[in-house]
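Re: that backbone. Tokens:
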């Protein structure tokens, strides 16, 4: 068992967070990750209310362990935020946009605020917003990403926002990537693409087959 600030915050056995892939990380996958003692996040993407109701209801029914939801910050409004919070997630991840307008509502609901960033300036804004965890996402990430690679970005963010725990993301798919991330100063990892290939993921079967068959 690896003990880090991330595992202690949510009572996890494994310092692994499911990337909230929009339309792919549904309630079933998030519950499976949480039930395995990681932190499952439902990928709310651009905040479709009907989809969120279905998938948040599912994760709430399928696990009693901590879980969360992730949304793209610049695409949500107050009604979507309130909808997601009504399901009482333990964590709320915001990425791609200023988290400060939503931070107070998230934290006052008793929810941990996770901010995903792609550079140092964004990390400092996340710190100002009161983020409980900051995800440093390198350009190797399978979805939206920044311009700086994971290897140099993670320690730079960790140094800039200490003592806030940092989680590494981008190109991490196995235990070696987790071990490397911990050595860089991260308290855990966020993985998306590796979980896309899971049976519980909502992605297309052909996409899963291509991921499994990929060479690099």
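Recovered sequence:
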């Amino acid at each position: 068992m690896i003990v880090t600030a991330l595992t202690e915050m949510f009572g996890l056995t494994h310092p692994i967070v499911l990337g909230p892939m929009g339309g792919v990380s549904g309630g079933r996958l998030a519950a499976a990750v949480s039930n395995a003692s990681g932190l499952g996040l439902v990928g709310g993407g651009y905040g479709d209310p009907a989809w969120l109701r279905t998938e948040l209801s599912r994760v709430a029914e399928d696990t009693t362990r901590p879980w969360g939801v992730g949304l793209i910050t610049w695409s949500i409004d107050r009604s979507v935020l309130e909808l997601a919070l009504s399901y009482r997630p333990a964590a709320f991840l915001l990425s791609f946009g200023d988290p400060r307008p939503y931070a107070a509502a998230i934290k006052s609901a008793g929810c941990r605020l996770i901010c995903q960033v792609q550079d140092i300036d964004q990390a400092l804004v996340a710190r100002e917003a009161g983020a409980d965890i900051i995800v440093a996402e390198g350009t190797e990430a399978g979805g939206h990403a920044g311009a700086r690679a994971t290897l140099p970005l993670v320690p730079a963010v960790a140094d800039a926002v200490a003592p806030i725990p940092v989680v590494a993301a981008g190109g991490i798919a196995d235990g070696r990537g987790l071990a490397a991330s911990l050595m860089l100063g991260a308290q855990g990892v966020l993985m998306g693409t590796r979980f896309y290939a899971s049976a519980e993921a909502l992605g297309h079967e052909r996409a899963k087959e291509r991921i499994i068959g990929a060479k690099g």
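The chain has a mean pLDDT of 94. The chain is about 40% helix and 20% strand.
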